[in-house]
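Working notes for the structural subgroup meeting. M.R. asked for a predicted model of this chain before we commit to crystallization trials. I am recording the input and output together here so anyone reviewing the notebook later can reproduce the run.

Input as submitted:
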Amino acid sequence: MAIELGVFGFGELASYPARRENASNVTKGLRELGDLAEMADRVGLDVFGLGEHHREEFAVSAPAVVLASLAERTSRIRLASVLTVLAADDPVRVLEQFATVDALSYGRVDLMVGRDAFPEAFSLFGHRLTDDDWLFDEKLRLLLQLRQQHHVTWAGESRPALHEARIVPRPVGRLPIGVTTGRTTKPVELAGELGLPLSLLMQAGSWESYRPLAELYRQSFRVPDTGPARPTLSVLVPGHIAVTATKARQDAGGLAPRPDPTLPATAIIGDPSDAVDQLVRLHDVLQPQRVLVSLGRGRISHSDALKSVELFGKEVAPAVREIIAQREAVNPA
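Returned structure, recorded in token form:
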């Protein structure tokens, strides 16, 4: 199985002077996300992803709406919600929205659901953070039932009951649905139990520190009646690629703290050659089927972010795909 490579973001506004929400910053941030998606599409990357937050530091609180606009600006690349906060939303509305985006994009959408690291999604929509686990479990199972069945009868505690409900529009194909988490084991086990793809959002620690979660997922994976026949793991990492390693490290110095002390240990940072080596090592550690890099975050300028995506697609991704394909041909799984 060929590895998929792409980029993602949450619409961070940290590169703007105010570093928080206002009308002009949000408008600019969303337009710049569109520029990054167009560049990713043009240079041959496989996936462009967005995640949901409900804080003033982020421009994206409605991933489906933004992805719908990107469907009109791209032609080939897959469009993913890397985080939709399902426990604070209605699964019926979520499926309707992403089925609509799926139609607009001619079947290019992925939907990854999970929990928000911040509490705003719960307080805004009348839920208690302490109910996150059971809400997520019940709503995820309902979401899968809604995708599978054309007429749905269901009863539970998280929303009003459904009786022979017809959910429209339907996805163009089989809308991929998976789970995103950081270091929480319950979503990992749930993804495995339900036979769903899993995305690990890597913010701190080392790549090796996420290996137990990857192994737990594979061990708990049950082949579903329909869906992927084997575990499908994605990893989401911060990063920045520049023409020289020195510039990359200077540009990315504001990403996050690490013992370095300026860069996260999980980050892909450097020139194209460095990025190739790092991505191959990351693949050696976790054996993911998809790697998405968060380019253009922190205080990195938009022009530098666009260049980073261009280098990723034109120079880094082809080399990584070739190296991994050669290794898998010699040692097939």
